[in-house]
Each structure stands twice: as C-alpha cells, then as structure tokens.
Amino acid sequence: MARNPDTIAALATPSGTAALAVIRVSGPDSRRLAAEALGRAPQARVATHGDYADRAGSVVDDVVATLYEAPNSYTGEDAIELSCHGSPLVVRTILADLLARGCRPARPGEFTQRAFLNGRLDLSQAEAVMDLISARSERALAAARQVLRGALGRHLAELVDGLLGALATVEAYIDFPDEDLPPQDRDRLQGRVTEALRKTELLLATERTGVLLREGIKAVILGEPNAGKSSLLNRIVGTNRAIVSPEPGTTRDFIEERVTVGAHGLRMIDTAGLNPGARGIERLGVQKTLETASDADLFLLVLDATRPTPPLPAALRDCIQLSNTLVVLNKADLLAEGGRPQAVPPPGFASVSVCALDGRGLDRLLAEVARLAEGLQTTVGDERIAINVRHAHYLADARTCLRSALEKIAAAGPAELLASDLRGALHAIGEISGRVDNERMLDQLFASFCIGK
Fold it and tell me: How many domains is the chain built from?
C-alpha cells in the first residue's frame, strides 16, 4: 500500500442546492477528524448520526458519518463520508472547517488515484469510473460497469499468464545456447503466441464499440428535399428542433440532437436534402451532407412514399450498407388505403413505413434503429468490454510484437530476439493495467476526473 501523509477532503456530490450532500475525507487523519467534529469516533462501517461542530464548538449541521477503515475503503486508506444537508453554505462551512483541522483540498481524480496506487483498482478499472459517471446509455453503463468490476483486467491477466509461460520456455533455451528448441516445444510455443494474438485482436475489435458508447452512434438522416427528414427528426426527438416547411431546401446545414433509442445513445443528425441540381448555398448544404455522411455509423434513408425512388449519389454508395442503413418510407398517410408506395427500397435493405407528422410507424422504426445499433457493437464472449484509445494504442503495440514473435518462431530465429518480442508484448499489456510505473501519464489521466472523485 502506498502511504500518503496527507488527508484530503472534497465534495463528492454536485455543487448547488439539494436535499443532501456528501463530503469525502481520505487519509490517516480521517478518524481523528470525525472524532473531533462529532464528539466521538464513529464505529467502522456503521452510519453514525450526530451534530457536526466546528473548532469553536458551534454546531454547523446534523450529519450522518460513516468510517471506512484501511484497507477496506474505496481509496484503501482510512476514509470518512459525511452526509449533510445540501445547502451550499453548510457544505462550504464544513469543508472550511476540515481544511482548518489539517486537511487539504483533493485534486481532480485524487480519490480514484489513491485507490489505484493502493491496489484497490487497476488502471483500466480507474478509467471505467469516469466512463460510469459519464455514461449516456444503458449499453455504455453496462460496459463501464463490467470493466469496473475487472472484466478487462481478467482478459489482460489471461494474456499475461500465457505470455509468461511462453517467455519462460524461450528463456530456458537462452540459458542453454547449445540446445535446440525441440519441435514439440516449438509447436507448443507457437500455439501459445497464436492464442495470445487472437485474444489481443479480439480486444482490439472493441475499440469502435468504445467510441460508439462514449461519443454516441452517429446516425445521419438522408433523403431528397421535402422527403420529411426534418419532420422525422422532430418526431424522434419529441420537439420541434428543426424548421419544417413545404418549400424544398429549407435545411441548409446539419442539425444534431442526442437521443436514446432502446439501450443506445445516438447523435441524430438532420441534413440538407440531396438535390443533384442544387446551386448556391443549397449546393454547399448538399456538400456538407456528403461530408457528414462520410464518417457516419448509421443511416436513415428517408424516401417520399408517394414518389419514385430517387438515385443515390455516387459518393454515398460505399457508405450505405445493409448492416447500417434503414430505409424510411415517409408520408404513408398520403397513400390510398391499401395502396403500394411508389418508392421502392434498394434490394435487401430493411424498411419501415411511417408518417412523421402523426407518429404512425415510429415504434417500429425505433425498434429497427435499435437493432442496427446493436449490430454495430462488438462483445468479448458474453462480456461487453469497450476499450478506449489508450488501451487500443498499447494493444496494437502488443499485436505488432506478437506477430513478429510468430515470424521468428516460423523461421527458427534467435531465441534472444524472440524473447525480446514477448517482453515487448508484456510491457505493452502492462501499460494498460498500470503495472508499468509512469507518473507523468498517471497525473495526466487522473487530472481529467471531477473534484471529489
């Protein structure tokens, strides 16, 4: 356990007026501070109600204090959580008193940093704390919760165990250079490294899922002018977010709104109509639509059901695929009862008929969008793990080392170089869990946390 002489304090709940507020204290003086303020030392892990008195003996508020003894606390140190009334004045007064008694203000992310340094969390779990706080959808919440509970750490530990076994085999022959690696050992070694590479690539495949969960799925609404794209956005969002007019070309730039569809968070984007004959500012709007669509994750291709299907711009043909596109046949209310729409979806594409004005067909549309969104995401077995950019960087380094190791095994290369590749892979994986000391990286990472966490 890393011993820190400082005792830190911070508000752990959002600032402002509320029914309750929680103030966190962590460090060696936690028990003493609680005893002084409450007049008695709280029993560990028992909620203790009492008056909080400042150094002058004046009662500030009645609070509920809970003592967590090291190492069985979030930070791994003695810690106190004070639940007081959520008056900003009460919070400021208690914090000022704690600082006067010897605490110092916690830096951003310092509670979680201490948890990491004291071995309560590995680095991937520490990062998952922030993902959990900022989750905007059920899927993002589930992924952050699984990583916080050690899912990514378990997969990395399996990787490390396999590589350590492979490295031990190689280093045994480095110590005995006159001995050749027997064929059976070489085959076993190749199998271990191949399996490690497979697991590494499986984790790397979740990088895109991580982006989708943290940033939201970029869902672009496309279609010709007056197909009802803006009306559809308004219907999905539940408010008149976009201007709707019978005049073609009303939307000249894109409009973005965040929505939750099923268990998924989406960035729903309304775009300018795809008018091949557009000129002037409308032409610029069409160009902006094509730019926006070039890196989209999901498409709603809106067709006017009363008109023939317009040609799709060549620039979109590589973007729009069966796996990421839903064809929306809008204006179904204008069709004669039982009439067939004139617009025909491209072969194989899922489609749904709607009326954006009255919401007809909306439930089915949202169900189809949720289905497509689910298909965009990668799982690791039964676990929903979503790596971030930092994880992907080191996993890519490990993959490079493992591929190089397999080439050396196949070519019966020098054991020393093979061992170097395996050590490189182990080092890269260690960077993800934080087993490799890098104070600069840690300070930068934890500085992104909010105060009190």
Answer: 3
